[in-house]
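Progress note, project year one: complex with PMV.
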Amino acid sequence: MHGNECTARAHANIALIKYWGKRDQERNIPAVGSISMTLDALHTTTTLRFDESLSQDRLILNEEEATANQLNRVTSFLDLVRDRADLSIRAHIRSVNNFPTGAGLASSASGFAALTLAATGAAGLDLNREELSALARRGSGSAARSIFGGFVEMFPEKQIAAADSKEEQTDAFAVQLYDESYWDIRLLVLILSEEEKTYSSREGMTISADTSPYYNAWMETSPQDLAEMRDALQIRNFEKTVELSEYSCLKMHALTMSSRPGILYWQPGTLSVIHAVRDLRSQGIPAYFTIDAGPQVKVLCLPEQQEQIITALRDIPDVLEIIPAQPGPDAKILEDAP
Ligand code: PMV
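Model obtained:
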């Protein structure tokens, strides 16, 4: 951190129990809780500098000038930071993902978590981790979880103790359940060839909440899923943890498919991998899948079976690359960055 410049790094996360739907669109509050694992292998590094000479924010994403939409989203987020710090200066932001760009991996979680740390650091704001998580949520719901490493739970409503106030208030933020050294389970990120996504997660969630006849059931059954996952993690029960995450994933996709219009995030390669994972299971190899709002499949397994599973999946047509990941660390400010 140097004066009005700060560099931060945050890791991507994948939800084991998914959220889908918002309770408050404006403040981006999720309708249900979620539980995720932060990934060591995938991260975003962001340097932000407040610069008096700029008349608007400037965003360089993976060494390329950002599109107007990407810039607008970042500017709206930075306005929240500027309001809080009583600043009006525009910022220069350079953000780099260490994972293949255009591979259809959601970078909004690591991206907005890194931006939260870099922007509040450069603005000289002193926020605790819960406040940072609540702020990151305004950029992207899943980013609230990427503030923390290991296994993380996001609460749609919880008491928050602000660093600069004695008053208790409620907000939606994540907390760490266990750090990254708690349990070595693996998540293999399969990069599949992708066609352009038709609905962003934000759009998809609105459509599902408005039209799916299953939306109420999704809301009603969420506390039970979260409770079961907390129990499974507490005793490091692998079978239960991964069975629950595959269940939560299929339940979320049933919700998108039962919306009007029906939203189908899967591609042919997605189904090929789903069946291959289930074939492995029928041969006694414990492998389970999870999928977010896109065609990419992530496979959960134990370290002992990782190589065997990679060998079985890498020759499936449409699988371009497999990135193995394990639980990763908290988002942090990189003190020695230039
Ligand atoms: O918060 P967003 O906009 O990144 O949406 C996340 C949606 C899912 O990845 C499908 C579920 C989740 O809990 O991460």
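The mean pLDDT is 94.
The radius of gyration is 20 Å.
No further modelling is planned for this target in the current period.
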